[in-house]
Design brief:
Helix 1 links the parallel strand 1 (4-11) and strand 2 (37-44). This protein has 338 residues and is mostly helical. The radius of gyration is 21 Å and the shape is globular. It is built from 14 helices and 5 strands. It folds into 2 domains: 4-196 and 301-331, Rossmann fold; 219-297, Tyrosyl-Transfer RNA Synthetase (Orthogonal Bundle), CATH 1.10.240. Helices cover 55% and strands 8% of the residues. The structure holds adenosine-5'-diphosphate and tryptophan (TRP). Adenosine-5'-diphosphate binds at residues 10-11, 13, 19-20, 22-24, 156-157, 159-160, 196-197, 204-208.
Length: 338
């Protein structure tokens, strides 16, 4: 039996939302439950400090993201669950990979290109105005995360496909340049049922945009968040298309194909937006309410979460140290006289 290694991370810049859940957390936990799989799930807090310069938020988010993984059913016996910053070897690998990554590859990264485009749109003469090196080279750090544990599959939302392709490209370059098959070539794993979810302001649902539906809410709070999703002015009874509001894609991410088809038919038959929103909130609650109590209990006991993370770091570091030694040797960083 060949073992498939699955790895993914979530940045610690806010409270996890439905997009994080359907794009990364749910598929990763499902994959981790497969017999022939080894999984690595982590809190990307060094990625967090790229986008968020608020220390209190980074710390609060670290706890929230960890509690979310655990509440959603991550099995810490079978999964290596850790915080990126507890594995300093990742940063050493990050530098070694930086030294073989073409600058042109980073010029093409979406996050950097979007920041440049913002500057151009705002009439800035310097296209790199206020863009930090962390943002520019963040795909290299993500590559180090992935290659360090030899991941075959990386469950991510569609916005991260490019970064996983870059990781593959960099792995190939390294293997080729140093004549050693040290790195496994990773592949993004995308859930076909799940689109990139859109937030209440019409942009990608993201912790960085404050436009999210959080995972853990009371039914009343959830209904309120769902009610903010944009729709158009069509009246009850008027036929509605599935592309007229982001709520359809969110429903689809939580429903079976049959339920999704029924929902599309009901919209076409004139279902009122208000009713559609009630159905959506109930559908989300049906999956997440069962996890809410565990989430609340875990959040009240950060020391317990910390113990779990430390145990995960011990496991992960052992493996990371071994690979790093081989990578350093490959590039000529070795002890003398041995
Ligand atoms: P955010 O943009 O909220 O900070 P992250 O960058 O931490 O999210 O992403 C963590 C994981 O969640 C990634 O795999 C990403 O692709 C996925 N993800 C983030 N937002 C969405 C979304 N709106 N729809 C689907 N998946 C998403
Ligand atoms: N950059 C990813 C994001 O913003 C989070 C992340 C960091 C990640 N390292 C990773 C995802 C490694 C998968 C694998 O969504």
């Amino acid at each position: 039996m060949t073992i498939q290694r699955v790895l993914t991370g979530v940045t610690t810049t806010g409270i996890p939302h439905l997009g994080n859940y359907v794009g990364a957390i749910r598929p990763a936990i499902r994959a981790a439950a497969q017999q022939d799989t080894e999984s690595y799930l982590f809190l990307a807090n060094y990625h967090g400090i790229i986008k968020c310069h608020d220390p209190a938020m980074i710390a609060e988010s670290t706890q929230a993201v960890a509690a979310t993984w655990l509440a959603c059913g991550l099995d810490t016996e079978r999964t290596t669950f850790y915080r990126q910053s507890d594995i300093p070897e990742i940063l050493e690998l990050n530098w070694i990979l930086t030294c073989i990554t073409p600058k042109g590859l980073m010029n093409r990264a979406h996050a950097y290109k979007a920041a440049v485009q913002d500057n151009l749109n705002n009439g800035q003469e310097d296209q790199d105005h206020q863009i930090e090196m962390g943002l520019y080279s963040y795909p290299v750090l993500m590559t180090a995360d992935i290659l360090m544990f030899g991941a075959h599959k990386v469950p991510v939302g569609r916005d991260q496909i490019q970064h996983v392709e870059m990781a593959r490209d960099i792995a190939q370059r390294f293997n080729h340049r140093f004549g050693k098959e040290l790195f496994t070539l990773p592949e993004a794993q995308i859930d076909e049922q799940v689109e990139l979810l859109v937030g209440s302001d019409g942009r990608k649902m993201s912790k960085s945009y404050g436009n999210t539906i959080p995972l853990f809410q009371t039914p009343k709070q959830r209904q309120k968040s769902v009610n903010k999703i944009i729709t158009n002015l069509k009246e009850p009874g008027e036929p509605k298309g599935t592309d007229e509001s982001p709520l359809f894609d969110i429903y689809k991410a939580f429903a079976t194909p049959q339920e999704t088809a029924d929902f599309a038919r009901m919209l076409a038959e004139g279902l009122a937006w208000g009713e559609a929103k009630k159905m959506l909130a109930a559908k989300i609650g049906g999956e997440l309410d069962a996890f809410t109590e565990t989430y609340t209990r875990l959040t009240a006991n950060p020391a317990h979460i910390e113990d779990i993370l430390q145990a995960g770091a011990d496991k992960a570091r052992k493996q990371a140290k071994e690979l790093l030694l081989r990578v350093k040797d490959a590039v000529g960083i070795r002890r003398l006289g041995v």
